[in-house]
UniProtKB/TrEMBL annotation:
Keywords: Dioxygenase, Oxidoreductase. Residues 5-129, 149-266 form the VOC domain. Pfam families: Glyoxalase (PF00903). GO terms for molecular function: dioxygenase activity. InterPro entries: Extradiol_RC_dioxygenase, Glyas_Bleomycin-R_OHBP_Dase, Glyas_Fos-R_dOase_dom, VOC_core. It comes from Caryophanon tenue. Transmembrane segments: none annotated. This is Ring-cleaving dioxygenase. It comes from the Bacteria.
């Protein structure tokens, strides 16, 4: 079996308004969905992505106010990499400088990369890519420069060779090249298709603010999702039951390098409880929490989307 690429990446952050200010206000992403953590409904689950909230563009967050700061390290997604259009890197250098966000410019696998951190310490990168699916959301960033979705991710594994075995034998990614401390693998999608594995191990990461919780891979349909569950089990991994996350079904397993993998369905998507035009405007609750709506609306902090046009 072969996944076509990344469905979403989920991270832990601090104050939700600071989170919105960075990913909408600075990066210009669309707030696609404002809901709650299904396992902790007193906490938001915020989703950001492209104009349509498509798989391969979605970065999601659990904002835990006053939570401990985590440490990025082995057993985690170390870096989340966003794709920007060709000929747009100079725009982003100017934008980051104007918004007083420090960045480093480097090269990996013959691509120019801008490296920087978000307000809570997550490590991010921007890289120019040609993609077939264009993001038309102009959230303070002109559409010709807008983030298209994920380019991919950099994995920090506690056992890089075992993680590579999972990527190739279980998830179906293909080897591309090795450069320095990194080995690159690709899937077939044009977004969220590139995974770099850091081949040198370091300190074990600790969960907390500023760290990625999990990376999710795409399954096209519910039927394919069931096949993935069987396939992952046959590959020797312990996999969870399938869980209904309202916007997709999900299953989880922790690969031998200690990184938490999810496989998520493309269906039904983010527009089944809101229209495409109004996604992200209201607090959307799964049916099991609808009776607590008044309580949750009073207890959850208000967040407001403001875009920086610079």
């Amino acid at each position: 079996m072969q996944t076509v690429g990344i469905h979403h990446i989920t991270a832990i952050v601090g104050d939700p308004q600071e989170n919105v200010d960075f990913y909408a206000g600075v990066l210009g992403l669309r707030l696609v969905k404002k809901t709650v953590n299904f396992d902790d409904p007193e906490t938001y689950h915020l989703y950001f992505g492209d104009d349509g909230g498509r798989p391969g563009t979605i970065m999601t967050f659990f904002p835990w106010i006053n939570a401990y700061q985590g440490e990025i390290g082995d057993g985690q997604v170390g870096v989340t990499v966003f794709a920007i259009p060709q000929q747009s890197i100079s725009y982003w250098e100017k934008r980051l400088t104007t918004l007083q966000i420090a960045y480093t410019k480097t090269t990996r696998f013959d691509e120019v990369v801008l490296q920087f951190s978000d307000v809570h310490g997550l490590q991010l990168e921007l890289v120019e890519r040609d993609v077939s699916q264009k993001n038309q959301w102009a959230g303070g960033v002109p559409a010709q420069y807008a983030i298209q979705g994920f380019a991919g991710a950099v994995l920090y594994s506690a056992d890089p060779e075992e993680t590579i075995t999972t990527l190739t034998n279980t998830m179906g990614l293909a080897y591309v090249a090795t450069e320095g401390d990194y080995t690159r693998y690709v899937a077939s999608a044009t977004l969220g298709n590139t995974i770099d594995v850091k081949m040198v191990t370091g300190e074990r990461g600790t969960t907390g603010v500023g760290t990625v919780h999990h990376i999710a891979w795409r399954a096209a349909t519910d039927a394919q999702h069931i096949a993935w569950q069987q396939h992952v089990t046959q590959q020797g991994h312990y996999v969870t039951d399938i869980k209904d996350r309202n916007y997709f079904n999900a299953l989880y397993f922790r690969e031998p390098g200690r990184i938490l993998f999810e496989i998520a369905t493309d269906e039904p998507g983010f527009a089944h409880d809101e229209s495409i035009d109004t996604m992200g405007e209201g607090l959307m609750l799964p049916p099991q929490y609808e009776e607590k709506r008044q309580q949750l609306e009073q207890s959850l902090p208000r967040v407001m989307v403001t875009y920086n046009e610079v």
